[in-house]
């Protein structure tokens, strides 16, 4: 659960009034701009969300008669939203400060302009409030593609991550990855607070990739676009040799591309993961090498006939 006090601290907001409401809970990741409500339409008032007020709302508020301001401001506060946040260029009316102190609802001031404030607030709240899962694996940013590497302990996931970081790619999380759905189609992964920047290498121990390779070796979070399962090579199994079909794995409501890579002596797994990520990027850009190959092969067979 996230409190108003935590948001104020982490988001560096200035508390103007209503300090008694700092311990209130924030439950919704979405934010609302109460423009219609200031015009008198409260049927769709999303009072359970943080209320963001920009210069446009304040300008409209200035057109209202004194009596209307008093009534509508009170109606905004009576439903007890978590807090009100005013953007950089929005002046805070005295009526808001008065109701804030009376009802113990925080009114804050941000240093961001309205559009930037709304987008950054939503991203921050989503990361804190959306349903989360913890997975065993290693997450990296490989050539711009978020790659989640899974597999049984001892298969070398961390060693693969170390080699990829050494090649200039970025570590996001090792051993445990916390994931959440920021929105439909977007699964984001990050490391638990205690494990950020750390990588465990058997025989060496725990290393800090930032101190070893610099700040460019680490990323706070990443959208997961490819899941790779490492597994011991099994002669009884049949592995995909063409890659025409794009397999998927589902997290929450979102499907993510999925591949299996068999591990055996002599295989450079780090290079395989790197190529898989680069190939996935090509597919996202509309180029499917396997499909192109089969089409060229079909065309060649037709010509021969």
- Tell me, briefly, the overall form: elongated
**Mind telling me the C-alpha Rg?**
26 Å
Oligomer: single chain
Q: What about the largest sheet?
A: 9 strands, mixed
**N/C terminus separation:** 68 Å
- Average pLDDT taken over every residue: 91
In terms of DSSP E residues, the strand content is: 25-35%
Q: Roughly what percent helix?
A: 25-40%
Low-confidence stretches: none
Give the topology string: H per helix, E per strand. Answer: EHEEEHEHHEHEHEEEHEEEEEHEEEHH
By DSSP, the count of extended strands is 18
Number of helices in the DSSP assignment: 10
Class by alpha and beta content: alpha/beta
Please provide a written account of the structure.
- With 305 residues, the chain is of the alpha/beta class.
- Helices cover 35% and strands 29% of the residues.
- It contains ten helices and 18 strands.
- It has helices at 4-11, 35-38, 55-63, 66-78, 94-103, 114-129, 157-166, 209-213, 269-284, 289-304, and strands at 2-3, 14-17, 25-26, 31-32, 50-53, 83-86, 106-109, 132-136, 138-142, 145-150, 170-173, 176-183, 186-190, 198-201, 205-208, 221-232, 248-251, 254-263.
- The strands form four sheets. Strands 8, 9, 10, 11, 12, 13, 16, 17 and 18 form a nine-stranded mixed sheet that branches.
- 33% of the residues are buried.
- The model has no long low-confidence stretch (mean pLDDT 91).
